[in-house]
Amino acid sequence: MTPILEVKNLNKTYNNFSLKDVTFSLNKDCITGFIGTNGSGKTTTIKAILGLILKDSGKIKFSGMDMDDNERKSKNKIGIVLDEGYFYEELTLKEMKNVIAPCYTEWDEAVFSAYIKQFDLKLDQKIATLSKGMRMKYAVALALSHHADLLIMDEPTSGLDPLVRSELMDILLNFMKEPGKSVFFSTHITSDLDKIADMIILIDDGRIIVNEEKDELLDTHALVKGDNRFINEQTQKLFLTLHQSPYGFEGITRKKKDVRRLMPDVLMERPTVEDIMLTYIGGNNNAN
Ligand SMILES: Nc1ncnc2c1ncn2[C@@H]1O[C@H](COP(=O)(O)OP(=O)(O)OP(=O)(O)O)[C@@H](O)[C@H]1O
Q: How high is the mean pLDDT of the chain?
């Protein structure tokens, strides 16, 4: 199956930062979480994909077509929710919609009205007066009203309370019910992804470190906790990260069988996406 988006050897250099040969694909019918710490390159990658900044090199394909050569055609099928609202604050929701709608050949006013109603938004309200949660919902309504196949969201949950974040997760799951849809979702609030992501891509210092199915990632790793007496020169090597305190140790392993064999009395739990992220970032542990 053709991936919905292919990013190949994407490079972009700023004074103190660079994307380094960023390469990944997004599959149809998948929610992909794009995770990384502050400043790891998530926004830069998304902006480069969307042509909002000039890339130094690299190829981006949408549904098999080169995005540089088919900008209008591909952007017609992509919905975008960006971190900084790209809205004119003094306009009302309706006025801003009137600016955005003509950019899309498949704009669907009925779908937009249904979202506005569902999200309890008022079209005559000024953008400047929207709360963070309302602003996110408005951005989602705009992004999903032109029959997009791929929704790209940059930190949509940042600054939102847990209730609104959970509402957003439901909106995304609802969007995914139609076959052929995909979501690419950058965040450093990884708990949102534990629930909904199919794939996890981790970027650290401009480099893709992990690109794997979420369940595979969580099944092949384990969070191990136990008494310090189990830690010795041999068992230490079983861990990607290991933290010891006077009360015991906690570590992430990929060698679950060996841990079970050599450390029979320890606790093994399924890690979270955050545990995995903290394991692989920074380049200062056994994982790299
Ligand atoms: N226009 C620019 N000029 C120079 N440096 C920039 C520019 N835009 C971003 N950077 C730098 O690139 C690095 C990556 O930034 P980016 O916004 O992509 O990170 P991020 O992973 O999205 O972080 P966050 O989670 O904080 O939004 C940062 O060090 C940032 O300072």
A: 92
